[in-house]
Amino acid sequence: MSEPNAPQVPEVPEAPAGPYIYDYKAAPNRQIAMPKTVPLPSRRTYLAEQKAAAEADEAKWQKTLADYETAKAKAEAEGKDAPKAPVRPVPRKDDNDLKTPFPEDAKDADLLKLQVLLGDKVEEVFEQAGELVCQVKKEAILEALALCRDEAALKYEMLADQTGTHYPAAKDFAFSVVYHLTSISRRRRLRLRILVPEGFVPESACPLYPSANWMEREIYDMLGIRFANHPDMTRILCPEDWEGYALRKDYPTVGWGQRDISFREDRGGMLERIALQKAGQLGINLKQPKAD
Amino acid sequence: MFKNEEMEINLGPQHPSTHGVLRVKLRLDGETITHCQPIIGYLHRGVEKICENQSFFQGQVWTDRMDYCSAVANNLGWAEANEKLFGITVPRRAQYIRTLLNEFNRIASHLIWLGTHAMDIGALTVFLYAFREREDVLDINEAFCGSRLTTTAFRIGGLREDLPPGFDKMVNKFLAKFSSCLEEYENLLTENRIWKKRTIGVAKLNAEDAIALGVTGPMLRAAGVAYDIRKAFPYAAYAEMDFEVPTRTEADTYARYLVRMAEMRQSARIIQQCMDGMPEGPVMAKLPKIMRSEVNEVYHATESPKGEIGYYLVGEKGSLNPYRFHVRAPGFINLQSLPKMAEGGLIADCVAAIGSLDIVLGEIDR
């Protein structure tokens, strides 16, 4: 039998299946809001979404028209005045200096060349915000990188950046790994992208671009993607015995040892006092010293 | 006792040339380095994770604190990456002011590099002189945005405020004396016999290796590659500026010193052009009160004093915060070249190599 004044225990979510153990019950404010969408730019997805939105809009308008017809017929039968005819809304005029770039068809010669040379290994090519994007099959990344570096018409000499993103809401993959190539002689940039599932080991870019060494170590440290044929696949930013991968979306933002309360809201110092008490329970001496 | 035996020693993290947390594991044969492994330390603050959980606007103060010696340059890259993500057109006056402050920041950053690098090698006077001029640049920062080091100078879409009254007087006063200050440093170092012996032919990194290792900035230009993002992919108002990209072909520590000195002269030239051609008009674009991103991903790179600083942002539909925020830190990539430069040299040359990299560990670990 429960007491009437028993405090409500806040509902805590199930711990996500991660490589590390995380005690949610001990710190309910360290809960994680997992992303529900997969913000992976793609021309194909963009077009499908636009089409679906247009169809939904049209269906809504047709329904409004049908409703109007029934209302009109009803009013005529009852001998009342006919209702006002509906007006299709026009989009509001926007005076802001803000035009979000959307993915466009690939027109750039580099992308078309890559598409021809790689054939069916290319999953998608498009341009967005003036940037060239080429998504290739995950097994063919080394071949694509070699082509970009050695092909006379492409000549991307430098791997400027390599990083990954975690997409826990996606079905067929868990991560994207992006390679930002720079051609110094031709003054161009290109983004190569692969989508990898959990546990997949992509080929390391180190044999082609030695600069990938530390960047891949960082990806491993932060996201937990291992790379095959990497000379030294160890952690780089965190200690060797660190639990979990910090940039995964299921990793808590508030880490161990961080305070559980917001001092910004604490004008009267009440929360600080509670924190000091808690710290005392943990055996840390943060209490005010006393004269005796 | 140590005859025919290799010895392993740690250079840093307590050595003054290693900036706090950098540890370099050296294996020595006599005094020659046979193996060098930099370990960048565990300063990691998780700036990327924090910025992913804050709004686009709040990310700016974190970029200040990565490379605190070139906060303005970091702000510029961040602001432009966001503007690319949202498709914002920035007013021309704001672009000019950004260019102006970015060049001042380059001077400040190179001055602190010059001072500490010279001090690493053993020349203390230059350190004191360089800080004297750096103070003037920080005064200009303070006049513009109220803070000296972590400036938070720009906003997405432009600037928070226009230039303060009397700003041009401050800038002109600085420019009038700056070239004579540079001459003073060069008198102390350029023809100095000890300086030349410690730097010429030391820590060589040729252009091929530099490009393969992703090294950018003055390090790459000292190897003879005229790659400057201000020219190659112009941003802010650099397309309208008339300046040169100084290069050297020796690819050693001395060449890097000369390239940075020449860059400071070019920066002063750009500042003069900005002041002369400053257009009138607003300094902020028209933006909605709440900006929600669409699905988009951008990589925007700018030329920070240390090299290419790139921001990779992924926007989620209807979201107020970036889904992914990644920084391509120039120091992180440049530091990879340390084994290439140090192996085969002496321990004292390794100190010169670390100095010529111009690293800030806050940026390397983020």
Task: Describe this structure as you would to a colleague.
The complex is a heterodimer of chains A (292) and B (366). Chain A has 292 residues and is of the alpha+beta class. Chain A has helices at residues 43-78, 109-118, 141-150, 212-223, 270-281, and strands at residues 104-105, 122-128, 131-136, 158-166, 175-183, 188-196. Chain A contains 5 helices and 6 strands, in the order αβαββαβββαα. In chain A, β4 (158-166) and β5 form a beta hairpin. The longest helix of chain A is centred in the first third of the chain and has 36 residues, at 43-78. Chain B has 366 residues and is an alpha+beta fold. Chain B has 15 helices and 8 strands. In chain B, strands 1-2-3 form a 3-stranded antiparallel sheet. In chain B, strands 6-7-8 form a 3-stranded antiparallel sheet. In chain B, strands 4-5 form a two-stranded antiparallel sheet. In chain B, a hairpin with a 2-residue loop joins β2 (23-29) and β3. The model of chain B has no long low-confidence stretch (mean pLDDT 90). At the A-B interface, β4, β5 and α4 of A face α1, α3, β6, β7 and β8 of B.
